């Protein structure tokens, strides 16, 4: 059963008990022989098939190999929870480790084969002796027939992969492409390649990333579901705020919602209270919760579909923004609104960012923070506003929180917005506690507002508009959550 992952932790360790022959004989007897019930076909199996067909059309006559990867060691012989490789999942919907998708050239088309590890059930000793994959240790896994039914794709036993690839690459004028970096075992089967092969493999990765730039109906539905769960997670955090002692407590509250309604969090949650909000990727989450501070919560539920939300709200822990907090918040909100107006097909991807920076710079000028006028600060050779807002306002969103990362710049950062793209819009202002250019009353305030936006044929739709953004609405939302919680406690 442990036939493929050559880099796995050893099946047996120094602290495992020996298995005497009599125990082995006893363990292999008297199990109910009835066969496993075949699973239902995954939802949207037709969408996964269409994606494979599109990939096939792009590389006719070429062998294509896409592994999902293996479980990763966290510490010694314990593993992180497995998450399939994004592109592999995008093409198959399959969730188990060690699998490999192979598209075998058949004329101008391809035969799609999914290689999966056989599941012998309790027919050999591995079901109780293999701590990595044995059924009594890790639970049952799909075998070949179950996977074929579940994923609506022809499946083969993983031990047959080597012979299949050898036969495919032995054909005259055989060309191959592989998604590298996920399985050294699979890469070894294809053998070393030179610079030309590396370029071909890179083209495959790039094409898959650019395929994912445009979301189909099933993907948009999955993203909406993830956002809806994320809203409930935010409300869980708000409900806990009055009695919360620390950021990590609130991180755990949101994580609980992610595990209840989805697969996991889509990324490490940023739970930044007070001046911690001025650290853009604050992930220690070890600060205390103080009533007069702001809480910057940047978090998203990754659904069972693996599509993730990515939402940020900056909340007044007391339930009311102070004058200074509101002044900064309203500048950021105005910047986001300006950016949202620029999210429409045909506009540059960077157009929302440019619009947001204009508003932020003029807001900084009004607060008396910039050393020059806003227009002077916005000049390319200056960009002084970036001292207080380090990041651009958008990135693509989907199966990865920073989706489509291998797409070419001309199709992403320097490309045009197209219907079906999903991106974040997330301006922010961050005033460090030791920044002497900032008036003391604003130091330690960090504000970011982030929403998940789909480009439509005529403009855009805000998938996360169900979470309030206007400061009065945020305050009302928080008090409504607290009131609802008080009623439940009666």
SSE diagram, text form:
Elements: H1 21-27, H2 45-58, E1 63-67, E2 73-75, E3 78-79, H3 86-92, E4 100-106, E5 109-116, H4 126-129, H5 135-138, H6 144-151, E6 155-157, H7 161-169, E7 176-178, H8 184-190, H9 195-211, H10 217-240, H11 247-261, E8 264-265, E9 270-273, E10 294-299, E11 301-302, E12 311-316, H12 323-341, H13 351-366, H14 374-378, E13 422-425, E14 428-430, E15 446-448, E16 451-455, E17 460-462, H15 471-489
Parallel strand pairs: 1-7, 5-6
Antiparallel strand pairs: 1-4, 2-3, 4-5, 8-11, 9-10, 10-12, 13-16, 14-15, 16-17
Helix pairs in contact: 10-11, 12-13
What is the straight-line distance between the termini? 55 Å
Helical fraction equals 25-40%
What is the tally of beta strands? 17
Largest sheet: 5 strands, mixed
Q: What is the CATH H-level superfamily of the largest domain?
A: Creatinase/methionine aminopeptidase superfamily
What is the gyration radius calculated from CA atoms? 26 Å
- CATH fold type of the largest domain: Creatine Amidinohydrolase
Put simply, the count of helices is: 15
What is the averaged pLDDT score? 94
- Please identify the structural class as seen in this structure: alpha+beta
Provide the domain count: 2
Outline type: globular
How would you describe this protein?
This protein is an alpha+beta fold and 490 residues long. 36% of the residues lie in helices and 14% in strands. The chain contains 15 helices and 17 strands. Helix 10 packs antiparallel against helix 11 (247-261) and helix 12 packs antiparallel against helix 13 (351-366).
């Amino acid at each position: 059963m442990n036939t493929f992952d050559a880099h796995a932790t050893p099946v047996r360790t120094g602290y495992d008990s020996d298995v005497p022959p009599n125990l082995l004989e006893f363990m292999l007897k008297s199990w109910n022989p009835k066969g496993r019930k075949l699973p239902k076909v995954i939802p949207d199996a037709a969408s996964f098939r269409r994606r494979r067909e599109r990939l096939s059309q792009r590389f006719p006559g070429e062998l294509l190999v896409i592994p999902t990867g293996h479980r990763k060691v966290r510490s010694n012989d314990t593993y992180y929870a497995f998450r399939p490789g994004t592109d592999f999942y995008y093409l198959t919907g399959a969730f188990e480790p060690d699998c490999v998708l192979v598209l075998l050239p058949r004329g101008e088309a391809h035969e799609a084969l999914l290689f999966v590890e056989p599941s012998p059930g309790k027919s050999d000793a591995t079901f109780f002796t293999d701590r990595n994959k044995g059924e009594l240790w890790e639970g049952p896994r799909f075998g070949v027939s179950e996977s074929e039914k579940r994923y609506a794709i022809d499946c083969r036993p993983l031990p047959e992969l080597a012979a299949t690839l050898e036969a495919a690459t032995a054909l005259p004028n055989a060309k191959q492409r592989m998604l590298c970096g996920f399985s050294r075992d699979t890469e070894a089967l294809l053998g070393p390649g030179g610079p030309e092969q590396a370029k071909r493999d890179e083209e495959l990765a790039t094409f898959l990333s650019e395929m994912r730039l445009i979301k189909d109906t099933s993907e948009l539905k999955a993203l909406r579901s993830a956002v809806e769960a994320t809203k409930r997670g935010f409300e869980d955090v708000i409900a806990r705020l009055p009695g919360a002692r620390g950021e990590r407590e609130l991180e755990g509250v949101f994580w609980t919602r992610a595990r209840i309604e989805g697969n996991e969090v889509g990324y490490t949650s940023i739970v930044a209270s007070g001046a911690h909000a001025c650290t853009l990727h604050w992930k220690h989450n070890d600060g205390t919760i103080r009533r007069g501070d702001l809480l910057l919560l940047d978090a998203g539920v990754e659904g069972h579909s693996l599509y993730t939300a990515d939402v940020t709200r900056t909340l007044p822990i007391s339930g009311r923004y102070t004058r200074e907090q509101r002044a900064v918040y309203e500048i950021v909100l105005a910047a986001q609104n300006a950016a949202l107006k620029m999210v429409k097909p045909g506009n540059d991807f960077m157009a929302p960012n440019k619009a947001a920076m204009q508003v932020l710079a003029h807001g900084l000028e009004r607060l008396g923070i910039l050393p020059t006028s806003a227009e002077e600060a916005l000049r390319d050779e200056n960009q002084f506003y970036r001292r207080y807002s380090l990041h651009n306002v958008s990135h693509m969103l989907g199966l990865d929180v920073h989706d489509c990362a291998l797409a070419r710049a001309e199709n992403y950062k320097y490309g045009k917005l197209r219907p079906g793209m999903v991106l974040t819009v997330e301006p922010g202002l961050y005033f460090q506690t030791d920044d002497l250019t900032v008036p003391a009353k604003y130091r330690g305030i960090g504000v970011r507002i982030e929403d998940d936006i789909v480009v439509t044929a005529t403009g855009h739709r805000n998938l996360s508009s169900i979470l309030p953004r206007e400061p009065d609405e945020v305050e009302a939302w928080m008090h409504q959550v607290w009131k609802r919680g008080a009623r439940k406690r009666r």
